[in-house]
Amino acid sequence: MGRILADLARDARLHTVLLYGSRADGSANQGSDYDIVAFGALEQVIRDTRRIDGEYLDLFLYPDGVLDAPDATMLRLRGAHVLRQRGDEAERFLAKLDAIHAAGPACLPEDELQARRAWAHKMAARMARGDIEGNYRRVWLLTALLEDYFVLRGLWYEGPKKALRWLEANDAQSWRAFDQALRPNADLAAIETLARCVTGP
Q1: Rounded CA separation 37/82 (Å)
Q2: Residue 158: helix, strand or coil by DSSP?
Q3: Which DSSP state fits 26?
């Protein structure tokens, strides 16, 4: 990471740098990238994804005005390590993110929640055909169910890694259903069980 930080330090526009994701929360494993966000005198968001010294970098550069007005799309930065900051801007920014998280997500209307429940069961029925479209819907459903678990319960969905860890700690039955359904050779019954677990009968 030294070379990455040195590159950022040479960019005179940037004044605040945060490390977030698995490298910040201790859950990194082989192949984990370095998730870094930097703020400075920029006109627009810039993303930089490359490999440096054998490590993957996922870097976002934001206009510094974002520090004053974060929104829910930036919750992935909660718990970030402050690598550099101007004054206490990074600490105030992270405190605002914690406040957004504590307030909880906006609730979807009941008709939208019901539509998500119905969609999951419809997709489970369609994937049973076993043709190419059915197999596509199988993958689509498995991906969507994890986020829908949280949405249907009025909880934040913070990406697959955090979501699966949360389930393991807080809802062992649902975690087991995901574990069975996400296996490469899982049968349709395991996926249907997961759909019921997430959405209800």
Answers
A1: 10
A2: coil
A3: T
Structure tokens at 4: 């990455």
The predicted-structure confidence for 156-186, as pLDDT tens digits, reads as follows 999 998 999 999 999 999 999 999 999 999 9
Counted residue by residue, the chain has a size of 201
**8 Å CB contact between 148 and 120:** yes
| Dist. CA 8–CA 12, nearest whole Å | 8
Per residue in 40-50, pLDDT tens?
999 999 998 88
Domains of the chain from N-terminus onward: 2-103 (3.30.460.10), 110-199 (no CATH)
CA angle 35, 39, 45 (to 5 degrees): 80
The label of the residue with tokens 């489970």 reads 124
123 contacts 141 by C-beta, under 8 angstroms = yes
Distances from the Cα of 180 to the Cα of 58, 108, 122, 165, 195, angstroms = 31, 29, 20, 15, 12
C-alpha span between 182 and 138 (Å, rounded) = 10
Q: Are 189 and 173 in contact (CB under 8 A)?
A: no
Contacts 24+ apart (CB under 8 A), 164-171: 165/27
